[in-house]
TrEMBL record:
This is Arginine deiminase. The active site is at residue 398. The keyword Ribosomal protein does not apply. It comes from Zooshikella ganghwensis. It is found in: Cytoplasm.
Length: 408
């Protein structure tokens, strides 16, 4: 039986889920990129080549790589899984009673690989090629999307996150990303690799409106020793943090959550865009955001079942992390260069590195000033190209969902 467990941010990485750029990014245009949460359009072929280098770098370092499109297609080979997914994406409340039947029939007739491609890449009116009389269709144009593309699937870190012996299938903050969660829920329920595996599902695996309780994996750092560091950011709310914490404590998978208040800004949409863990006592941070005076709380199990105890951290979150990791102090590697160079490199994900084992990280080669500082601190940086991938505003950590990683 496969083992799914993530015990840290820095232990040996063994299995990871990635998503190679595909149809959804080819449908990203200057007119729709903002609605789809991108700042720019990518050269998809070049981004694909860069992603291949990323995946091969992982394989060269002993990591088993799974690709989301393939895993979703394999999941859809189960008729039960296919019906489950379509029930949640093609309803009469979305398309009306007549047009929903037409769309459902069209998607049902696709083979699994093509269906997976269109669920992620979108479906246009022209591709459906329907004469359905419903005004829902008749009022649309040939290039309108019936199913919107989901280019943010590139960032597999966010939609689900493995924390010790379980997974949170996250309620996403933005409408453009909410359908991603359906795909990950289906994979963890029905794919042969997961359906008989032994793991907890902490949060998000329900057909409900989560209202203000949103959570994204870029804000969740499994720092080890039973602790989790979570940023309350543009995308992750205190409500989401508390609900995840309650279930982590209930299942006994974690004993502490350190929650940080972050600015609600695009440049630091998630904690991992300004702070990641590289070695036992070493983090990379963007100091303009990660200041000592950031408001922070420790959440621990309360006395009664289901209760949470809250403690406002009085000294600093840096000292709280050091205490948790049982190290005298943390080594903080700041974003490199002068104030202008550091701001540019942070924007280009200099601090968003993926640790493959203690002291060895993957990051974009373009961030030369930050790489220099990391190497001077004894960190080995495995550089990958990111001239096009980086336009998506996500680095190596953003583009990876660890499925198995060792404790520290």
């Amino acid at each position: 039986m496969s083992r799914f467990y993530v015990g840290s941010e820095i232990g040996q990485l063994r299995k990871v889920l990635l998503h190679r750029p595909e149809l959804s990014l080819r449908r990203l245009t200057p007119s729709n990129c903002e609605d789809l949460l991108f700042d720019d359009v990518l050269r998809v072929e070049e981004a694909g080549k860069e992603h291949d280098v990323f995946a091969q770098t992982l394989r060269d370092n002993g990591v088993e790589v799974f690709l989301l499109l393939d895993v979703l297609a394999e999941t859809l080979s189960s008729p039960e899984a296919k019906n489950w997914v379509l029930d949640r994406q093609v309803s009469e409340y979305r398309f009306g009673p007549t047009f929903s039947t037409e769309v459902r029939s069209f998607l049902n007739e696709m083979d699994n690989a093509k269906l997976a491609s269109h669920l992620i890449g979108g479906l246009t009116v022209a591709e459906l090629n329907s004469q359905c009389p419903s005004p829902v269709l008749q009022m649309m144009h040939e290039t309108d999307f019936i199913l919107d593309p989901i280019p943010n699937h590139l960032f597999t870190r966010d939609t689900s996150c493995w924390v010790y012996g379980g997974v949170s299938v996250n309620p996403m903050a933005k409408p453009a990303r909410k359908r991603e969660t359906v795909h990950l829920r289906a994979i963890y329920k029905f794919h042969p690799m997961f359906k008989d595996a032994d793991f907890e599902v902490y949060f998000g695996d329900e057909d409900r409106n989560f209202e203000l309780a949103t959570l994204e994996g870029g804000d969740v750092l499994v720092i080890g020793k039973g602790a989790v560091l979570i940023g309350m950011s543009e995308r992750t709310t205190p409500q989401g943090v508390e609900l995840l914490a309650r279930n982590l404590f209930k299942t006994g998978q974690a004993n502490k959550v350190i929650a940080l208040q972050l600015p609600k800004a695009r440049s630091c949409m998630h904690l991992d865009t300004v702070m990641t863990h590289m070695d036992y006592d070493c983090f990379t941070v963007y100091p303009d955001i990660m200041r000592n005076d950031i408001p922070a709380w420790e959440l621990t199990p309360g006395k009664a079942a289901g209760e949470i105890s809250y403690t406002r951290i009085k000294d600093s979150f840096i000292k709280a992390i050091a205490r948790t990791l049982e190290v005298p102090e943390l080594r903080l590697i700041h974003t490199g260069g002068d104030v202008f160079e550091a701001e540019r490199e942070q924007w280009n994900d200099a601090n968003n590195v993926l640790t493959v084992r203690p002291g060895v990280v993957i990051g974009y080669e373009r961030n030369v000033y930050t790489i220099k500082k990391m190497e001077e601190a004894g960190i080995t940086v495995l550089p990958i190209p990111g001239e096009d991938l980086g336009r998506g505003r996500g680095g190596a950590r953003c583009m990876s969902c660890p499925l198995e990683r060792d404790d520290i």
